[in-house]
Write a structure and sequence with these properties.
Number of strands: 14
Oligomer: single chain
Low-confidence stretches: 146-164
Mean pLDDT: 90
Strand content: 15-25%
Largest sheet: 7 strands, parallel
């Protein structure tokens, strides 16, 4: 078995030691080196040729974001960021994901054995996922997203809104923060309402919502329980609640549910898609973007059976074709589409 070669970059000797010990307990990952700052890391990348990096953000001599930007320009490779769960850490992590980091994990909490065990499972899985990431997608997706043909005219947007009562349910995970930002950049302010589940911790929810809102003519924000679902708005699940839709007298409303994780996730795409299948049926469009695992795939098939039309991101433009690939294999997808064409496909389905 070929092992994943990992380089750990962190200015804290304790964090380097903890991460190396965690990874050293699995058979398929090998720590080939550690570095205390980006300059040391640059030399070790040349000599050790790692498959994956873990990268701290705050480091001496050069911060992690500057190093990441240079790395993605000169030698793109899978990077898992090690982040602090603070507002400042969330902003920096969103910036890192935009620059091309595959994923992130929080800094390890050393206050209990149980916390450390859960943390070990998370970081090992994310390193394995990063090793499989399609690093060619970043430049391709950004180049196509910049094409003016992906953005409809405002006149088209008005016609769609006047004749349509569609809603869009969208799920995403690894690579999804940047994919969603590029997708909504092609939608007008009058596009159908979009309900979003992206796998993120609650500390990152507000930063992610701002990240999406800044990228689109639509209004994006965290969903509020009981909030009416309106065209031109994007409703994002907070990191500590499931998002569902319900049909009430005045129309569709958002519902936030405090249940256990589903498919190991909270929020879960499965919960959103099931509610959309039940309460929106043929009035819904399902969208599955890049992501590891299979969360939401079965419920997307339920949406199809209820009359919804479903779109999945294609493999070539996905960082990881896990969730969309599983939806495709189950027969849930009507359209398998490159990221740069999903916005146009949504608008075509609302005409």
């Amino acid at each position: 078995m070929k092992k994943i070669k990992l380089l750990i970059i962190d200015d804290s000797a304790l964090i380097r030691q903890v991460l190396a010990k965690i990874v050293g307990e699995v058979d398929d990952i090998e720590v080939v080196g550690t570095a205390g700052d980006p300059y040391e890391a640059r030399e070790k990348i040349k000599t050790l040729n790692p498959d994956v990096l873990t990268l701290d953000i705050e480091m001496p001599r050069m911060d992690g974001l500057t190093f990441l930007s240079n790395l993605m320009r000169l030698r793109p490779m899978p990077v898992v960021m090690i982040s602090t769960l603070t507002a400042q850490g969330a902003e920096a992590t969103m910036a890192a994901l935009t620059l091309g980091a595959v994923d992130f994990v929080a800094k390890p909490q050393l206050n209990s054995v149980e916390n450390l065990r859960q943390y070990a499972d998370e970081i090992v899985n994310k390193i394995r996922t990063a090793a499989k990431a399609n690093m060619k997608v970043w430049d391709v997706n950004r180049a196509h997203a910049a094409e003016p043909a992906t953005a409809p005219s405002s006149e088209t947007g008005r016609r769609i809104t006047a004749s349509s009562r569609k809603i869009v349910a969208l799920g995403s995970s690894t690579g999804g923060t940047e994919a969603l930002r590029l997708l909504v950049g092609g939608l007008p302010s009058t596009a159908p309402a979009i309900l979003v589940v992206q796998h993120l911790p609650v500390a990152f929810s507000a930063s992610f919502a701002k990240h999406v809102n800044d990228a689109t003519e639509m209004r994006a924000g965290l969903a509020i329980d009981g909030e009416p679902v309106m065209a031109g708005h994007i409703y994002i699940a907070p990191g500590d609640r499931h998002l569902a839709v319900a049909l009430e007298r005045q129309g569709w409303v958002c519902r936030l549910l405090d249940g256990p994780p589903v498919n190991r996730h909270k929020p879960s795409v499965e919960v959103l898609f099931k509610s959309v299948a039940e309460h929106a049926g043929a009035a819904a469009i399902g969208v599955m973007l890049t992501g590891m695992g299979a969360d939401g795939a079965k419920a997307m098939l339920e949406m199809r059976d209820a009359g919804a039309v479903n779109i999945v991101q294609d493999e070539a433009t996905s960082v990881v074709w896990g969730m969309p690939g599983e939806a495709y294999r189950l027969g849930a997808a009507h359209h398998v589409v490159p990221l740069e064409r999903i916005a146009a496909q949504i608008l075509a389905l609302t005409r």
